[in-house]
Amino acid sequence: MKGLIACQIQDVNRLATDILGITLALDAESFSYRAGQYIDLVLADGSRRSFSIASGTCTSSTIDVHVREVTGSQFIANVLETRGKTGSLAIAGPFGELYYRGEPQAPGSAIILMASGTGFSSIKAIIEALLETGSQHPVHLYWGGRCGADLYLKSWVARVMEMMPCLSFTPVLSDPQPEDQWSGRGGNVHQAVMADFPDMRHCHIYACGAPIVVESARRDFSERCGLPTSQFIA
Q1: One fold for both 5-95 and 110-233?
Q2: What CA dihedral angle connects 118, 120, 123 and 124, to 10 degrees?
Q3: Which of 5, 62, 116, 152 is deepest in the core (most CB within 10 A)?
Q4: In contact, 89 and 41? CB cutoff 8 Å
């Protein structure tokens, strides 16, 4: 596959009923990217899909991606069928402008990480990069899903918060199920962010998830909360 990096599936872990964590071993000594970026998975027939890199170590010979198994979609099934085969799977990239830009210089600036669903994969990579830098700047994580199962790495977040006291976490569910026994925040995740930060002039937002969530946030944060467009990174 010309211009691509060949890879093989090294490991597959089920993170939730319909979400897989896939570790890819790359046919390269190292692969450099910025935490938050994405790659395309490319099959031998040329079909491809984009997936965020979920690991924050930015020079590595392995990378992790989180994928949702969608009923009726054959692409992920075809990717999984390449396990143990050579020459059947590759990546292209890295791509994307979503990556950590460093601590804001203005006093009192807030770093807000906003994810919906498996968009958390990019945000996870950014959090891991922040951990590596030892940053003490306050970071506010908002993760939205339909029900509790969509917040598939809540336990990982809890462990990271023990190592990163500057990190706060606000989970938001739009349609919690009875088994969730939910007493937390409800509605849309970007509206929860606006409720907590009605003045965003000094906020720096990193957002990843469903396009409608990201674009609604981009519009509303700017029009209703005064966020400078250059401070919305997605």
Answers
A1: no
A2: -100
A3: 116
A4: yes
Give the pair of three-digit tokens for residue 67: 């994928």
| Cα–Cα dist 116/23, whole Å | 21
User: What residue spans of the chain are helical by DSSP H?
Assistant: 75-80, 120-133, 154-163, 189-196, 211-225
CA distances (Å), origin 195, targets 66, 106, 185, 192, 200: 29, 22, 11, 5, 11
pLDDT tens for the chain, residues 1 to 234: 557 999 999 999 999 999 999 999 999 888 899 999 999 999 999 999 999 999 887 777 899 999 998 776 899 999 999 998 888 999 999 999 999 888 888 877 899 999 999 999 999 999 998 988 888 889 999 999 999 999 999 999 999 999 999 999 999 999 999 999 999 999 999 999 999 999 999 999 999 999 999 999 999 999 999 999 999 999
CB 180 within 8 A of CB 173: yes
CATH topology of domain 110-233: Rossmann fold (3.40.50)
* Pick among 1.20.1250.20, 1.20.58.60, 2.40.30.10, 2.120.10.30: CATH of 5-95: 2.40.30.10
pTM reported for the whole predicted model: 0.93
- The greatest distance separating any two alpha carbons of the chain, rounded to the nearest whole angstrom, comes to 53
